[in-house]
């Protein structure tokens, strides 16, 4: 269990709260205005506040995997779901490698913590995407997934951007929810990039995709309202 911060505070205070709940003596008292309640780590998300970005590692104090900028390639603020913590170290879903779990250190003024409300669970075999509100099912929508030659990857990902389809020539319908993962088995001759996303159809639907999740325009507009950046997305068989 770690302390929830509802405002952007110095991450040294975050680290103190994390260390305290992990059994270590806190290095700094967390001010009352910055703490709302004690919540599980998996109900939080963290936003990068340092303009030059923060390093990400393969484990607490482990090998450095790269540097995460404060903003994504499409200009969104970078927000990552928190999966767990070990003292001041946060295990997050980050846009490195194939967009899976990695670790960041809550120190200085690099990060802020915020409570997370929504999560998405997709089932390839069922052809569905389910929205959870504080862990409770709110709604399930139909979705198409990748074909047999380019199956949608399984795993834990995160929403990195919410984009209008207008800027992409109608290739992705009305709306795009970009995810942290990448498609590693693209169809032969594919030129559309390898970034995973949930998007609306550009033509007849449903039909297999190159790996993305595809939902109707109406359902995509609903998902856009329920999947802010930092929302975790789990894709299951």
Walkthrough of the structure:
It is a single chain. The protein is mainly beta and 237 residues long. The protein has 2 domains: 2-115, no CATH class; 118-236, L,D-transpeptidase catalytic domain-like. Helix content is 9%, strand content 40%. The chain has an 8-stranded mixed beta sheet with strand order 12-11-10-17-13-14-15-16, with helices on one face. A 5-stranded antiparallel beta sheet has the order 8-7-6-3-9. The protein has a two-stranded antiparallel ribbon with strand order 1-2. A hairpin with a 4-residue loop joins β10 and β11 (128-133). The radius of gyration is 18 Å and the shape is globular.
CATH topology of the largest domain: L,D-transpeptidase catalytic domain-like
Which percent range describes the beta-strand content? 35-45%
How many helices? The count is 2
Biggest sheet strand line-up: 12-11-10-17-13-14-15-16
Q: Helical proportion?
A: under 10%
Largest β-sheet summary? 8 strands, mixed
Secondary structure: number of strands: 17
Low-confidence stretches: 1-11, 21-37
Class derived from helix and strand content: mainly beta
Distance between the termini: 30 Å
Rounded to an integer, what's the Rg over CA atoms? 18 Å
Chain-averaged pLDDT: 84
Shape: globular
Under the CATH scheme, which architecture of the largest domain would be assigned?
Answer: Beta Barrel
CATH class of the largest domain: Mainly Beta
Whole-number count of domains: 2
